[in-house]
Structure formats: structure tokens, C-alpha cells
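dude i think i finally got it to work??
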Amino acid sequence: MAINFPETPLVTKNRSEIDRNLDRSFIWLTRIFALAIAGILLWITLQVAIAASPAIQKFGINFLITSNWNPVNDEYGVLPAIYGTLMSSLIGLVLAVPIGVGTAILLSEDFLPSQVKLVLVFLVELLAAIPSVVYGVWGIFVLIPILTDLGKWLHHYWGWLPIFSTSPTGPGMLPAGVILAIMTLPIITAISRDALISVPSGLRQAALAIGATRWETIFQVIIPAAFSGIVSAVMLALGRAMGETMAVTMLIGNANNINISFLAPSNTISSLLANQFAEANGLQVAALMYAALILFLLTMIVNILAEFIVARVQRL
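look at this
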């Protein structure tokens, strides 16, 4: 026996013309906002490129592969700053990723009471609220003395390795990398935790039902399912580390040379800009804007790479 249900009219048939106009207006408004963001980004890029054009015309690609920075003779090369930017960010990520992801696992699973987890989540997020200059001051008076003693020990016993070949004298690449690790921890932890929490509970229950242990479930099911979110967290943290200015400027030593040792002073593009822009004039301003454009392109490459990796992982 067939049952005939009464036909339910679609909601759109009962909507007034005013509602439909409001919907169309909202759609166009959001499009305008999205185009405005793209326009602002292009405008900033264009203005920086115009300001950097004298240096681009004079130095060209050699600006990226030379290391001499001499404002007196108008000779500029940004290779040491590029090296310092990448290496300090890499050190920060190597230290921050295991701690951040481990903390995210701890805060997303039932290892602790909910009240304790709530306090820990608040403390992790509080790290992001500390101004970078406070991190810098803390690094000068607390972190550098500790790492200097550690660096001397590493140099004494492991100095035959190139990364420990320099005896530390204070500020250097290692303190800057450690402070970047601390500053990027909130980003990695918070986003990774959200990704782990968003994994469907059915996956966890299915893994446990077929005999997997708790840790096998975490490492073989939950983390692979949340891997795209974890990669996004790491890439965002990398962009944050590459653009950090004040704390790195106060701790890295601001030495315009390339040294493979993590214990030696170095320089970054952001610290170069912070140290010299206030007193720059003439071609030096254009050279600094050229360096800023390079930093902008590096961070853009990182974000594009993050989108590519996330999209690739999601297709697997």
C-alpha cells in the first residue's frame, strides 16, 4: 500500500523578494571584502617593490648571493640575513614541533582531568599574549647565560662538529632559535589540538574495537587523520618565526656573516631592517626595502607550500 505524503513547499518559494535581494547583497559584499584583501596585499607588494626598485636595478640578483653590507660604499648583499632567517626558523621548528604536537596530544586525549587540561590550554594560549620584547629581555638575562654555558660544554666536547665549532660569547643563532621555538609553541599546539579533536570519534572506536592499543590508535589512526591540520600549524609557525623581529634582534647577535655553527652570532632580514631602517637614507633605504620584499616573498612561498602540502595530504 503506497503512502502519499503531502508535498512540502520549498522554503525558497515562500521567501520574499526582499530576502532574496538581501542574500544577493550579502554575497556581493563578501566578494568585495575578499577582493579588498587581495587588493591590499597587491598594493603593499607594489609599494615595497617601487621603493626597492633603485636597489633592484643596481644589484639585481647579486643582492641575493653576496654578503657585503657597506652603507659607506653603497655595497649591499643580503645572503647572510637570508641564511640567518632560514636557519633560526629551522632551529625553532625542530625544537617546537615535537613539544607542540606532544602537548596537543596530551590536551586532546583523556590523560588528564578536564580541569587540569583547561588550565594548561589557558597557559599555552597565554604564551601567545606575551609581547616579543618581553621574550627578548627574558632571553638576554635568563636564556643567554644558560645557553652560553651549554654552548661552551658542547664546543669543548663536540667542537669537532661544524655546528658546534664556535665558542659562544653570548648572543647567537641558538638563543634566537630557542626563543622562536617558545614563541611558536602556542600556534603549533593550539592548531594541532583543534585538528586532533576534530577527528571523528568513530575512527578511534573502530581502532580500539579491532584490538589496537591506545598509543597505536593515536599514532596510526588519529595523527594520520589530523596530519593536514598539523602541517598547517607547522607552516603557520614557520611564517611566524621568519617574520619575528624584536626578540630575534635582541638575541641573535646581528653579525652580518655566514657561520655554519649554531653557537655563532648571525643576522636575519627582520633584525637587519629593525637595526638599520631608522638611520638609513638614499640607496640604503632601497636596499632595505629590497630585503623586505625578499622576506615577503619567502613567507608567501611558505604559505603556498603549506597549501600544496595540505591539499596533497587530503587527497591521500
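The first helix runs from residue 17 to 59.
im so relieved honestly
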